[in-house]
Design a protein that fits this description.
This protein is of the alpha/beta class. It folds into two domains: about 5-70, no CATH class; about 95-380, Zn peptidases (Aminopeptidase, 3-Layer(aba) Sandwich), CATH 3.40.630. The chain is about 35% helix and about 15% strand. The chain has helices at about 5-15, 55-65, 95-105, 110-120, 130-150, 150-155, 205-225, 250-255, 290-305, 320-325, 360-380, and strands spanning about 40-45, 50-55, 70, 160-165, 170-175, 185-190, 235-240, 265-270, 285, 310-315, 330-335. The strands form two sheets. An eight-stranded mixed sheet has the order 4-5-7-6-8-11-9-10, sandwiched between helices. Strands 2-1-3 form a three-stranded antiparallel sheet. Helix 7 (about 205-225) links the parallel strand 6 (about 185-190) and strand 7. Helix 4 (about 110-120) packs across helix 7, helix 5 (about 130-150) packs parallel to helix 7 (about 205-225) and helix 7 crosses helix 11. The relative contact order is 0.17. Belongs to the peptidase M28 family. M28E subfamily. This is Peptide hydrolase.
């Protein structure tokens, strides 16, 4: 006999309509390729409330209602360790002669090729077989770009690693070690590699959320290597797992760094492709739950290096992986494709595809690759 939970879950699934042409399954046992126990209990933290235990199914339902949260089951101590050093200041950009030549080498060719491959997986859900396969492909692609574009001397400073997670899809980190012997600061540029549908067992190509951010920062990484940029401070590119599950991957990484790694600044790139028809092309700067001095620094970078303006916007509590670093006490910022109101409404569905609309723009993504390059060079070229 099925448990009461199973009967409830069956009722939830059975009441749903077919989505995007695929029939919703009507039994909990009919989800091959996933290791997601809908009855598993998770500790969830929402804004202004004490943490509560809820099932994985209840997490899915909360996400469907637009509720943002941290899943803190494995990271309950995040934010409790004292900072390694005092927060850094962010002076006005002054590395123009280093940044501008690199910007000229950025292209839409690589991001488009990479994103077509990245969205070919049925879903990149962090508890799916194809989610694990997409992560393996991503790490392999990062390694290929490193071998193809990095000089031997620069490759000797680079380490590409997986940050292991219990759910199978690991976060990926590419680190370019800095040359300074006195400054242990680290600059982080991040995106999340996973995708999800509102009902997670359905297809989720995740072209914009956050395939766009993932390949945007990958193109920035390629350009830095092609320019043979040897940073003074270490620079890390992060591709997080399980953002859609409650910022699980980035919380785990931030907790591992907390109190041990001197993170100077973290910049998150989540959704960089969408330009809503009839609106001005612009960079959305998230202004809530971020480090405001670092966000002001990003404004200066946009004014100096990009061809489009910035606009202030908000996205709410725990809305992307920058929130994990802020929780750990590190300066973090978040840029998005537009104001939150004008962002892509096809996310978390099978329609989050490259070809769904001419509003999906690789040229728009290119502006964000410029921003990531400028962020890395300006903050990675200085010491103390």
């Amino acid at each position: 006999m099925k448990s009461l939970f199973a009967l409830v879950a069956l009722a939830v699934v059975a009441s749903a309509s077919p989505i995007d042409g695929e029939q919703v399954p009507f039994a909990l046992e009919s989800f091959p390729g996933f290791s997601l126990d809908l009855s598993a209990q998770r500790l969830v933290e929402m804004q202004g409330q004490p943490p509560v235990w809820m099932s994985e199914l209840e997490k899915i339902q909360a996400k469907q209602r637009g509720i943002k949260f941290f899943d803190i089951t494995d990271t309950r101590d995040l934010g409790t360790v004292p900072r390694l050093q005092a927060k850094a200041s962010f002076p006005s950009p002054n590395a123009t002669e280093k940044v501008k030549p690199i910007l000229k080498t950025l292209s839409t060719k690589g991001p488009e090729e990479n994103l077509r491959e990245f969205t070919s997986f049925r879903t990149r859900h962090y508890r799916s077989d194809t989610g694990r396969q997409s992560q393996v492909w991503l790490k392999k692609r990062i390694s290929e770009i490193t071998s193809e574009w990095g000089s031997k001397s620069l490759q000797n400073k680079i380490k590409i690693s997986e940050f292991s997670h219990s759910w199978g899809q690991n976060s990926v980190i590419a680190r370019i070690n800095g040359s300074s012997t006195t400054d242990d600061g680290v600059i982080i540029i991040g995106a999340h590699q996973d995708s999800t549908n509102m009902w997670p067992f359905l297809p989720a190509p995740g072209a914009d959320d956050d395939g766009s951010g993932s390949v945007t920062i990958l193109e920035s990484y390629r350009a830095l290597l092609a320019a043979d940029f040897h940073p003074v401070r270490s620079i890390e590119f992060h591709w997080y797992s399980a953002e859609e599950g409650g910022l699980l991957g980035s919380q785990a990484v931030a907790q591992a760094y907390e109190g041990h790694v001197n993170v100077i600044a973290m910049s998150q790139f989540d959704m960089t492709a969408w330009v809503k028809r009839g609106t001005r092309e612009e960079v959305g700067l998230i202004m809530d739950f971020v480090d405001l001095p670092l966000t002001e620094f990003n404004k200066q970078l946009i004014d100096l290096y990009l061809d489009i303006p910035w606009v202030e916007t908000k996205c709410g509590y725990a809305c992307s992986d920058h929130a994990s670093w802020r929780k750990a006490g590190y300066p973090s910022s978040f840029t998005i494709e537009s104001t939150f109101e004008n962002s892509n409404k096809n996310i978390h569905s099978a329609n989050d595809r490259i070809d769904v609309s001419d509003e999906f723009s690789f040229l728009h993504m290119l502006e964000f690759s410029k921003l990531a390059v400028a962020f890395a060079v300006e903050l990675g070229s200085v010491s103390n």
